[in-house]
Amino acid sequence: MKRGNRPTGEIVAIILSVIAAVALVVGGIVVAGILVVGTVLNVQTKLGLWASDYIEYTYGGADRYTASSDFTVDDNISNIKIDWIAGDITVKTGEGDSVRVYESSDSEDPEDIMRHKTDGERLTVKFRASGYYAVMYKKDLTVEIPASLEIKSIVINTVSSEITFEGGSFGDITVSDVSGSVNLEDVKCRELDVDSVSGEVSAVFASQPHEVDIKSVSGDVKLTLPREPEDVDLESVGGKLNVNGAETLLKYESESHSGSGEVEVDTVSGDITIETLG
């Protein structure tokens, strides 16, 4: 077994140590600890990812998955789940009537090719074959969804990824990310739920969401909405809050009942900015 590369557990531990140290400086001792440990355990549990002298990435029913670095799904897919370890993830509008998924990787090992399966209306994508590997590597993933197709739910669990949504219509978007930014541009969705340890979260909504729930330890959060939400709850231990140009510190609550939707954002050391266009 090669030992030239740090195992995933050690790398994540180093990153979290730095983040936690910063959070402690600004005073968010308890909050930082809860958010860091909770998010990391949440992601690792969802991915089946644990490490000692090797990297273990295991999941059940592995024999039902197909290996392919570029595939299309012609079935009527309405739910997508992606379990990824490292590398950029882009979800964008594609041409045609099929969902296309493809990756970019430097590895030539067949075990490192992504896996996928369909179960009724659900598509599940895995980072690689179930098992063990010694070298930490990254692969970029692209998911193209036809403009005519509305995805009821898309769930992304990842350790280290820059996640980008370029347009599209969704019911629910759920993201769990230890390290990396989350960016939504001109997206329609009913609900957005993001758990992140380190990385910025930015979302520009093409239509008013029903519910937005974002939790982050380190990283700014910026949301642009078509109109004012009915309920807003913002809290940051060490960051600044800005709502339509009005700046405040630590906590902001609003129950205007003049708009629609609910927005809740909690951070430890990040700034929170909310802008409404109408």
Key features of this structure:
seven-stranded parallel β-barrel, 22 strands, 278 residues, mainly beta, 2 helices, Pectate Lyase C-like, single chain
Overview of the molecule:
The chain is mainly beta and 278 residues long. It has a single domain (62-276), classed as Pectate Lyase C-like (3 Solenoid). Helix content is 13%, strand content 51%. The protein is built from two helices and 22 strands. The strands form two sheets. It has a seven-stranded parallel beta barrel with strand order 15-16-18-22-19-21-17. Strands 1-2-10 form a three-stranded antiparallel beta sheet. Strand 19 (231-243) and strand 20 (246-255) form a beta hairpin. Helix 1 (8-25) packs antiparallel against helix 2. The longest helix is centred in the first third of the chain and has 19 residues, at 29-47. The radius of gyration is 19 Å and the shape is globular.
Strands, helices and their partners?
Layout (H helix, E strand, L loop, with lengths): L7 H18 L3 H19 L1 E3 L3 E3 L8 E2 L2 E4 L5 E5 L5 E6 L4 E6 L10 E5 L2 E5 L4 E3 L6 E7 L4 E10 L2 E4 L2 E11 L2 E17 L2 E5 L5 E8 L2 E5 L5 E13 L2 E10 L6 E6 L4 E5 L2
Parallel strand pairs: 5-9, 5-12, 6-11, 6-13, 12-14, 13-15, 14-15, 15-16, 15-17, 16-18, 17-21, 18-22, 19-21, 19-22
Antiparallel strand pairs: 1-2, 2-10, 3-8, 4-7, 7-11, 8-9, 19-20
